[in-house]
User: Which sequence fits this backbone?
């Protein structure tokens, strides 16, 4: 039984929008925490390879980054890299999925208890990104590379954007259904604009760390599209 | 004498904000149109080299793109490329400046006659970009590359962003002074958000040409920040 007459309805926490980013992706990484023994050793090696790959790609771009250089930087044989990631594309996709899975964890950790807390949980994710310039730079670079000729991540980013946009639309639709969007603001516009603003602002922040405040910009945007609590 | 009492004041056209992108840049390219004889031949060669460079960089990224391959693609000797662009950085900067100069021309060609026409001129620029996917992809790629380690364009994009943000702030301040911004919308937020939204939306459009409409998104955003004409 939903409470009619109250503008901010409060769905059960399990029904709150989660803005899933990695969740629902095909072949998303399995949970790796708490593994032991040989499996744990393998997971440590895998993580070292991903860290090395991130460093090499940020320096050289994903097209120039060689599996040999990644192996050297990770301190393992090239065969070990190929055991974990048979192709460079597999490795690039793994890098992006780890990042997306981490974003989902951060959003969940912000624990929105009512739908009114959802905007604050989005800002918590933006605040966390502000401490992760390297991974944001990697993401931005790979997304931009992905739209150039015959790139290994073209399909991945196309599928990812559709999924993330759908998740944001679902989230903003829930806010709209709860009467939280200002008159005239549609969930379609609000979700597309929020995501585009976020990514554009992150690029600008990478270019000018002192001059651009992503969190403040998102906060002001949310203020613009959300009905103010007093209204 | 400005008209007080009228909400939409109408500055003289020469005083209208122009959202300059290339204008004011250090070492912006001189006007090349109408040149003749040897100078014209040189300009044609230069343009052919820039076209070839764009194609090679979109395929390989700017780090891997070699001056030799660019020369081959342009059908000239490598020495000719080096005559026009002694370093790869010079060539990359020239590519970006040509794009920015073209943007300024398109905005000017939209000929805003009163300040109320300025938003429409911005949309005209966005519409023109929609027919220029290759140059938008090049710009997006180089901007993303520029924030990675020791990139030749780091300083260029840092200086460019500061300049473009200042131009947008000046433009939105003029709209604000003319009473065109909604209550509570500051020129600082409006200009930063407009630019970030625009670039983020362009990236999303490059990833999904059919699913993302940059012009519609900007139009809705302008609708959100501008006072509606009836008010």
Assistant:
């Amino acid at each position: 039984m939903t409470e009619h007459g109250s503008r901010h309805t409060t769905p059960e926490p399990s029904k709150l929008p989660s803005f899933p980013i990695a969740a629902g992706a095909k072949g998303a990484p399995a949970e790796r925490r708490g593994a032991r023994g040989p499996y744990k050793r393998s997971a440590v090696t895998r993580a070292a390879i991903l860290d090395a790959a991130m460093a090499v790609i940020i320096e050289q771009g994903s097209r120039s980054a060689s599996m040999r250089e990644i192996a050297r930087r990770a301190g393992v044989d090239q065969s070990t890299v190929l055991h974990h990631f048979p192709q460079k594309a597999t490795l690039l996709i793994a890098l992006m999925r780890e990042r997306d899975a981490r974003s989902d964890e951060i959003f969940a950790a912000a624990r929105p208890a009512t739908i009114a807390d959802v905007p604050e949980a989005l800002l918590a994710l933006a605040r966390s990104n502000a401490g992760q310039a390297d991974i944001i730079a990697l993401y931005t670079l790979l997304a931009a590379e992905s739209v150039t000729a015959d790139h290994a991540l073209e399909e991945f980013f196309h599928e990812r954007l559709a999924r993330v946009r759908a998740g944001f639309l679902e989230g903003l639709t829930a806010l709209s259904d709860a009467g939280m969007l200002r008159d005239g603001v549609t969930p379609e516009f609000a979700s597309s604009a929020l995501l585009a603003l976020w990514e554009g602002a992150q690029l600008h922040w990478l270019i000018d760390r002192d001059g651009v405040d992503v969190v403040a910009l998102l906060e002001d945007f949310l203020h613009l599209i959300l009905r103010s609590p007093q209204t």
User: Anything to note?
Assistant: Residues 19 and 202 of chain B are 18 Å apart (CA to CA).
